[in-house]
């Protein structure tokens, strides 16, 4: 049975949006922080992985299921578990719960280990993940199917520069930024009356400092599909009316 780790968390002002909901990019950032705390407590911090194996962890896929978003100043519990791994992929879940223990947001994530110099994906060694007590399996979880990039040929386009503040300590764009780039294309009036119900994000290629982000969007009644820099990242948001 995998080890679980949890922390209480009070949603601060700067992580809340215009409707007093916790931003999804903040959910992702805090989830990464909580997983990092567990890793440090198990002597498998990012620094340890880099020093011993010259590797770093990278998230390549997220799936969020949202019942409701945490509210400004609400005290929630964030729980995480590294559930399983195979020779190339590690799977970790997060649960954001209210004071009564109800799950507000569930996040499923897929991770890989990458070499710091070559930026290539490396095999997951048992000794790196052993302290999490995750299940070792040969099974690879099926990825979400996104719209193909040629679907976006005549789609709405917005461009953004990659700034220094967008980078994380591995030197590439922080993964939470991609959701912001995608969702910023949605009209404010639509956002007032709709909440994300499901979010799928896949990271295919690193985006580095100095790049230009070209984000394309296809919007239907309750779904927005986003393609960033010709499949460098793909995002799909399923919306519900509130």
TrEMBL record:
Residues 153-240 form the Acyl-ACP thioesterase-like C-terminal domain. It comes from the Bacteria. This is Acyl-ACP thioesterase domain-containing protein. Belongs to the acyl-ACP thioesterase family. Residues 3-132 form the Acyl-ACP thioesterase N-terminal hotdog domain. The keyword Lipid metabolism applies. Keywords: Fatty acid biosynthesis, Fatty acid metabolism, Hydrolase, Lipid biosynthesis, Lipid metabolism, Transit peptide. InterPro entries: Acyl-ACP_TE_C (IPR049427), Acyl-ACP_thioesterase_NHD (IPR002864), FATA/B (IPR045023), HotDog_dom_sf (IPR029069). The keyword Aminoacyl-tRNA synthetase does not apply. SUPFAM superfamilies: Thioesterase/thiol ester dehydrase-isomerase (SSF54637). PANTHER family: OLEOYL-ACYL CARRIER PROTEIN THIOESTERASE 1, CHLOROPLASTIC (PTHR31727).
């Amino acid at each position: 049975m995998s080890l679980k780790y949890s922390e209480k968390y009070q949603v601060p002002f700067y992580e809340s949006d215009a409707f007093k909901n916790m931003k999804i990019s903040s959910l992702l950032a805090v989830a990464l922080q909580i997983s990092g705390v567990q890793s440090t407590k198990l002597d498998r911090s990012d620094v340890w992985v880099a020093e011993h194996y010259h590797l770093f962890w990278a998230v390549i896929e997220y799936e969020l299921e949202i019942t409701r978003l945490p509210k400004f100043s609400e005290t929630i519990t964030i729980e995480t578990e590294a559930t399983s791994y195979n020779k190339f992929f590690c799977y970790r879940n997060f649960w954001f719960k209210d004071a009564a223990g109800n799950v507000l947001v569930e996040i499923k994530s897929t991770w890989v280990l990458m070499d710091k110099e070559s930026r290539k994906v490396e095999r997951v060694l048992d000794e790196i993940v052993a302290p999490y007590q995750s299940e070792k399996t040969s099974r690879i979880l099926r990825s979400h199917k996104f719209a193909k990039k040629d679907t976006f040929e005549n789609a709405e386009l917005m461009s953004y520069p990659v700034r220094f503040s967008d980078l994380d300590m591995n030197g590439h764009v922080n993964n939470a930024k991609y959701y912001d780039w995608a969702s910023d294309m949605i009209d404010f009036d639509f956002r007032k009356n709709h909440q994300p119900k499901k979010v799928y994000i896949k990271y295919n290629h690193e985006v580095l400092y100095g790049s230009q982000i070209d984000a394309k969007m296809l919007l239907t009644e309750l779904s927005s599909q986003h393609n960033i820099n010709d499949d460098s990242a793909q995002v799909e948001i399923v919306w519900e009316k509130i």
